[in-house]
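Lab notebook, bench 4. We co-purified these components, and the gel suggests they stay together. Before we commit to crystallization screens, I want a quick structural picture of the whole thing.
Request: model the full complex, all chains together.
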Amino acid sequence: MFKNIEITSQLPDVSKLDFKPIDKKYLIVLLLNFSIVSIVLFVGLYFLIKKNLEVHIPEYSSYLYIALIFGLSIFLLFTVLGFYKRKYAVREKDISYKKGVLVQSITTVPLVRIQHVELEEKPFSRLFRLASIKIFTAGESGGDLKVNGLPKNEAKKIKEFITHFINE
Amino acid sequence: MNDIFDFAKFSRQSSKGIIVNYFIILYKTLKSSWVLIPILLTKDKTELNLTKILLIVLAILIYILIRAVLVYLNFKFKIKDNAFILKQGILNKSNISVPFEKIQHINFKQNFIQQLINVTQVEIETAGAKTVEISIKALSREKAVALKKALFLKMQEKDVVAVENNEPVKEILHKISLSKLFKVSISENHFKSLALLFAFIFSGYVQVKDFLETLELDEKFDRILEENANSLIGDLFLMLFLFVFSFIISVIISFVTTFVRHFNLQVSLENNTLEIVQGLITKQNNIIKKQKVQSIEVLTNPIKQKLGIYNVIFRQAVSGKINYKKIIKVVGFNKEHINVLKDVFFINTNFTNEEKHKPDTYYKVQLFFRGFLFLVFLNFVLLLISYKLLFLNVIIVPLFVVLVLLKYEKSYYFFNKDMLVIGAGQIATNTTYLEHFKLQHIKMKQTFFQKRKNVVNLVIQTASGKITLPCVKTRKALEMYNFMLYKSETSTKKWM
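Here is the predicted assembly.
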C-alpha cells in the first residue's frame, strides 16, 4: 500500500462524486439518429434484395429482414440503456465522464492538462438547444473527452469555466 | 566564438547545398513520376530512338540543376534580436520567423549524400499549435555548430534555457563498440521480423510466386513433395524447411536493420539533457530534454539479460499524430547505465519499501479466454486448408499455454508517491517508468465480467500514448486513480 495513507484517505474520491445525468432531450436526438440509420439500412437492403439477391436466393430474403430487425433492436436497446449511463461531473480542478452498459468506464481530465475546449452543435441537437463539449489534451489526436447532450447554457458555462482556468 | 560567422546578416547554406538540393529534387521527381515510367516503356518504341530519350533525360536533369541552384540562391537565414528568420522560395516566397522561446530542439542530421560531401543538416524544431519545422539542408560542420551556439545564446537571454554559471560538462555516458552492437543485433527479437516477413509474403504472394518460378525452386519443392507424397512427415519436413528458411531471412533482416540504425551509437549527458548520435547511412542526432520525456521503457529478453544488455525507449511528448522521431530507441545499455538514467530522469525511484503488485488472477482467465478464441479461429483456418494440419495443435496449444502463463508472470506494477513502474512482456521483459504528474487523463474501464470479479482496467494517458494496467482490484485502482489525479492537479512542474 501507499506509505502516506493519511493523504490518500483524505483525497477527493472520484467514486463518491455527484454525477449529473445529461439532458433527457438528448434521448430524442439519439432516437432520431437511430431512425435515420435504420431507414437507410432498410432501403439499402430492399434494393439489394430486389436487384440482386432475389434472383439468386429468393427463399432467404425474409430472413435477411429479420436479421436486420434483430440487429437494430439490440442496437436500440443498448442505445437507450446506454443513455441512462451517460453522466458527467465538473469539479474545481477536473472534469469526469461516465458511460457504458457492457463496458463501463469513467474518465477524468485534470483541467491543468487541457489544451483547448470545443463547443459543438449538431443539427438535431440544435433543435433541442443542446450542445456537446469536446476536450483536448496533449498526445493522441481527436477528442479526449466528449460530453454529448448538455443543455446549451450548461455547456457554455463549462466551456467558460475551463477557458478561464486554462488562461489563468 | 562566432567571429567567423556573422548570423546578424542574411547568409546562405554551404555551396555544396546545391548538390543536396539536386538530389532532393531528383528524388522527389522520381517519386512523383515513377508511375509514368512503365507507361512510357509500353508505348510504341519505334517513335522513340535512343538520342531522343537521352535528350529528354538530359533536359530534365538540367531543369533540376537550375531549380537546385535557384532553391539554393533563394534560401537565406539570419538571427535577429528576438527571432530566427528564414527566407525561402523561388516564386512563392515565404518568410518564416521563429521566436527564440518557441524553439524546442536543434538537431543535426546527416544522410548518405550529406556525409559524402561533408555537410550537416540542421533541424530546428518548434513548439506550438501547428508544428513548424525548419530544416537547413547543408551547412559546414563548423557553421552548424556556430549556429547552434548562437541560437542557444539567444535562447539563454530569453530564459528559455537555464543559464549555467560554469561551463556545461559533457560526459559520455555510453558508446557502443562494434562487438557489443553485434551482440545487440543478434539478440534482437527476430520473431517480430518473421511476422513482418510473413505479412509481406502474403501481401505480395503473386510476385513471390513469379520470383520462385524464375528460380526454379518450384520444381525442387515438387520433387521433395513427390518423394514424400501424402505422408505426414513430408508435410512436416516442408513446413520445417520453410520455417527455418524464413527464420534465417528474418534474422538477417532484423540484424541488418538494428546494426545500420544504431551504428556508432553515442550517448552523452549534458545538464540533464541526453544527446544521442547514431546511424550508419543516415546519421541521426537527437537531443532528449528531461522535461519532454513522458515515460521510459526498458526492454530486455532472456538472451540479452544473460549478456547484460538493455535497450531503452524514450517516449517524448507528441502533438497530433504519433511522430516516430519522438520515440527514440537506444540500444546496448548495461545495468549501471540504467541506474544513471533513472537518476537523471526521475526524482524518486526508491521502490525497496514498496510492495510488488500483481494483476488480479482474473487477468489470467481473460488471457486464456482470448487465446482460446484465437485458437478456435486458427483451427478453423487450418481445417479449411487441410484437416491434416490439425496435428499442429500438438505444438501450438502447449506453446500458447506457456505464453499466457509467462505473460501473467511478467506483469506487475510498483506504485510509490512519485512514480509508477509497470512490468510487462512474454518472452521479452519490458519495464515502463512513469511519473504521476505526466498524466494527461485517466480512465477506469470495466467489462461486465470484470464487474462480477470486482476488477478494472486502469488506462493512463500521457502525452506520448497510453499505458494500461489490466485487472486491478477496484478499490486499489480507485486509490491510484484519486492519487494520480491529485498529483497532477497539484504539481507545479512542467509536464512538457
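The interface with chain A takes residues 317-322, 353, 355, 415-417, 439-448, 451, 461-466, 478-479, 481-483, 485-486, 488-489, 495-496 of chain B (CB under 8 Å). Worth comparing against the SEC data before the next meeting. Chain B has three domains: 17-163, 178-345, 389-490.
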